[in-house]
Design goal:
The structure is a homotetramer of 365-residue chains. With 365 residues, chain A is an alpha+beta fold. The first copy, chain A, contains nine helices and 18 strands. In chain A, the strands form six sheets. Chain A has a five-stranded antiparallel β-sheet, with helices on one face. Chains in contact: A-B, A-C, A-D, B-C, B-D, C-D. β11 of chain C pairs antiparallel with β11 of chain D, so a sheet runs across the interface.
């Protein structure tokens, strides 16, 4: 990981700001021969896109991805692109670049945002819409993740919201199909109406709320990952923690593991009828000693409430004046909702990366 | 991060197994002119050392560190070592290398351990005492961390246990001095007796339990850290998650941030009498947009219960035989306790690394 | 260095092919506050551009650079851009993308080109104009180098051709001003006419020739660079060797050092009137033990003759058919000529990178 | 590459100084299941060892390697070690650590050495025997190289001196068996006597001389290597240039390529009887576009004359006093001789690294 690059062999570098020319990424180290369509990537981007319900910002970001390098059209289908093994550059142009009036935020530090820290660090700051610290950067990750998903045969990475603010779900009602049906990526159909009303209240009270997202990856080959600073769970945690507004990450039963006993936490093993080792539970979240067990990899992350709220908060300006900050305009009352496909992308990238690393070091697949 | 190296500029590579010749680390990129004594490092190692109370394993590991390179004796004091800017190699030799009888664990996969995944990954495994996956590896991190602490002027990194199993603390009684007085690194004097009895019960019932550790770093210069994949919180999370048995990491209020509202979560700002920006709270844990605010950096991590327990658990052998595994011998009923200095070390290393990175890119200190 | 990225802190990632959408780079880790104009970058790009004399290819590449991120307009001058410390993405679009007829090269391996090796490696190859292995990729390096030059105060990096094929120069006539006056970057005015006639002959005989380029950097701060795998000369050699068609690299007197004696090769030292150490010669090329002495850094690299020639050469096709390959169209009879600004860029990037590294580790400037 | 680490997946970190506790390396990312004996490593170390002829320094370095981690004894042969996939730590202890009198070099900068630059960079310097800049560091590379050789099936890496000072060889007499028979690694039996007399003269005149070494690797799988900053030739050049006293590196015909024409330089191709592509010459040195062709990889590097000579050279002290420096004691009149196994090791490491990288990205072997 360097400043704007992550990954060891499957390496993703992102660039861009929310109000400049656009954002993009360069995916280096992708295997040759990976087939995909623009529609594949667009489908993931569309799930992240704002403006899809009353609970996400109404800004219209027309997130059309353009692939600039690293692919050829498939000989058998011009719609299908095939990676050549060279860097895949992708861009998502900012369509609305007209000069807005940012005078109200140019010099004032919005609480919960990175305005102050960018100024302290760099002595200069792109104040337009958050600049580099804007969540818009995450669209580039989603595009990279769409490729990563295709690198590992049989891999499936899905995400769902498991709580919004104080509202959780009933896990016995978990239904992946439901996740695609509602605006919250909620796996519990009965919780949806409750969440809807709850978020309406939050928004009307000029407030916001956070949430917790769970990512589940199946088809993760046993053996990928590595000790001791190349742990698969470590790289997943690192990737998820790099998402804007994320304040916590768990693998498997996570913090719950600290509360239960060793007897209860043990994932016992038996031989399956297929002659393979079978785990009788998955408290570990599919990873032991940093290496995948072959069980589903399970990670959760906590997103803080949207910092841009219409309730005034006390702050200061760059010149030291004390002010009150109110963020006007429509913002997601829960930015966590749109973080679901972003979390999927980061987990997919980490798994693809470790798949290549493992193949490199051991020659096993 | 590669397999056994972490850090960007302040880079730590560790090596070694629990029952081979020893363990060690190479610290590369350390600034020249850092002064320290062997006693400085030993003090941190001693806090991690087993056998210090009835609640940690009674094995006697005489963790004497030897510095093999990268230093000169100070001209004004032969006890003081001064770094020269070249790699600092440190070793901790295994003193008890006599050949034990490992036949009971050689072929059987202990639940919760990395036995199975190492075999799947590498096709070969050092079964003696856990080999590379042994917690003994963490002694090397503690040695590296002792240097890292000295890299950043004014930095102080301290840790404490905030819960053991189901038992927490009363934060209003937090006392850093108390942390050094009890065997649990517990900051709440009144909780100590309760924890003591609780762990006795756990051990007598042939069971184990996990815990949560909180690390607090003060004196972290505002501005260190970086967007977007070189975030300070991300690198801290990555480092903590790389510690054996860690299943979750939080920054600031962490998962609690997902439950409260944006109004409550905002860290408001005012100007201090010293003309510096003052935050009125620290929900963010000292980091915004991946960059330090100058407030204390606060991180917590969850350690799962000790997997080595005397209660039989079902498992299989490498050849597919179904067996029951019981771990004999004394093991910590709560491995989390000894993780406190390890967590401190990982946070200190991340901060030292970002201090150098920030100085490199911006020329600011 | 990964596949398509170089540099430690000043990191450059390039992407793109000769006949796709375009080429570009992402420069990460650039310090904030660096001021430049598009004209600054364009001036360097123009020196690399083909079609400038009869001795370089007549293809018209309109290498206009576009800066996509990482900058703000200077408040005092809208023509001046200021880096913000975030990644600077630059693109140079391919203006002539019409579909040509590549059927004559699609399946046949051109001797001296990477056609065969790309096919062996990836099993798929972008055959259009050389794809990723096209020298067009180097324009992105030149753009990055234009920024690198501005990172180190007082740094000046200049290059010149010191031989073309069998024709050398008289070093006593070295004149940097002359380098800018002729089409060969030749520092010896009297050699120019001779080289001109020589290259005419080469081209008329349907042949090509190589050359040697010398890069001289002044204003390199003493102390930058590092032992033992972060040597400044090593990173310069690595960067120069990564340029297409380069087969050799020298530092200082290079291979000549292997021929002379230790007495003659010693760079003796005396104290200058300014109280600074003065070297009485510079056989070392400004670097000792991988660290800059403060003298001019001198590097040379050898470029092989253009592989695309109109004289038939024997080869094979992807399907194993034996063929003769003739490269039609205008190609540089000496690709080395245009490598001068590319070599400058790679040296400038290495120096900027080590400047930041040194500042990071030692805090010295 | 960081300061003291090289390699992408097969990563080598070295540490140590010439007169401290010892030197060593940590090899990370080595595949599991590689079998070797201590004697294998020792054989390579012994070829680098000083004191083997009157032309190398008479210091007795008893370079016994100790393997500290990352291996198990083979079940079928206790003499054979098997890598486990975890870091392999190796140490070579300094046996003669008695305190010498270094007062004559402590403060004076020896011309050609890194004394001055270390002081400028770090402000502190281990003056004992050159400290970190001592050629003794290269023993650790040789140990790592001995492992690297075993990573790629069928790989053979050999080196020879092709010139000493002004004395070359007759390539028509090249005999690899002869290389092992003489003290110069000279492949031309008739040149040996001439070199012997020449070096005697050099030594008697209190002088020294450099040399050129050629490394030839056969069995390099076609397809390893990568564009454009992960080129195999680039990484070989980087590795060779990192060796002490190396001032130039060539691949294939190297600088000669700049002198000949494209017609002559073309490596034409035909189909072999085995249905494989055959190159009719190897000017390219086995690498095209950074990727191996399957032909022998050929690299050469120039070593400057030994800087430690008994002829006085002018210099200065750390405090600015002008002095004459004479290096007493026996030093190699040509340090290049002992660089042969070091060059082999660096080339072997680069090839092993790219073998793993290629397998990781493409899944091909």
């Amino acid at each position: 990981m360097s400043f704007n690059t992550f990954g060891h062999l499957f390496r993703v570098t992102t660039w861009g700001e929310s109000h400049g020319r656009g954002i993009g990424c360069v995916v280096d180290g992708c295997p040759p021969g990976i087939r995909f369509t623009l529609a594949d990537i667009q489908a993931d981007l569309d799930r992240r896109k704002p403006g899809q319900s009353k609970h996400t910002t109404q800004r219209q970001e027309d997130d059309r991805v353009e692939v600039l390098s690293g692919v050829l059209e498939a000989e058998d289908d011009p719609e299908t692109l095939v990676t050549t093994g060279t860097p895949i550059s992708m861009a998502i142009w900012n369509t609305d670049q007209r000069s807005k009036d940012y005078s109200d935020i140019k010099d004032r530090y919005r609480p919960g945002h990175a305005d102050y820290t960018y100024d302290v660090k760099y002595g200069i700051r792109d104040y337009r819409g958050g600049g580099r610290s804007s969540a818009r950067e995450t669209a580039a990750r989603v595009a990279a993740g769409a490729l990563a998903r295709r690198v590992v045969p049989g891999l499936d990475v899905r995400g769902a919201m498991v709580s919004i603010g104080t509202k959780g779900i009933d896990r016995t009602r978990w239904d992946w199909a439901e996740v695609r049906r509602n605006a919250f990526f909620c796996p519990d159909a009965e919780a949806v109406a409750q969440w809807d009303a709850y978020l309406d209240d939050i928004r009307k009270s000029l407030n916001s709320v956070g949430g917790v997202i769970e990512i589940v990856a199946t088809g993760v080959p046993a053996g990928i990952g590595a000790p001791v600073y190349g742990k698969l769970d470590q790289d997943i945690a690192s990737g998820l923690m790099s998402i804007n507004a994320v304040k916590g990450v768990e693998i498997g039963n996570g913090f719950e593991a600290a509360r239960i006993t060793g007897v209860d936490n043990a994932d016992e093993m038996r031989m399956g009828n297929d002659g393979q080792v079978q785990f009788l539970s998955n408290h570990a979240g599919g990873i032991l000693g940093g290496i995948a067990t072959g069980q589903p990899v399970v990670a959760r992350f906590a997103v803080k409430p949207t910092s841009s709220i219409m309730t005034p908060r006390r702050s200061v300006t760059a010149s030291g004046e004390e002010v009150e900050v109110v963020t006007r305009g429509r913002h997601d009352p829960c930015v966590g909702i749109r973080a679901v496909p972003i979390g999927e992308a980061m987990v997919a990238c980490a798994i693809a990366d470790h798949y290549l690393l493992h193949r490199g070091q051991t020659g096993r697949v």
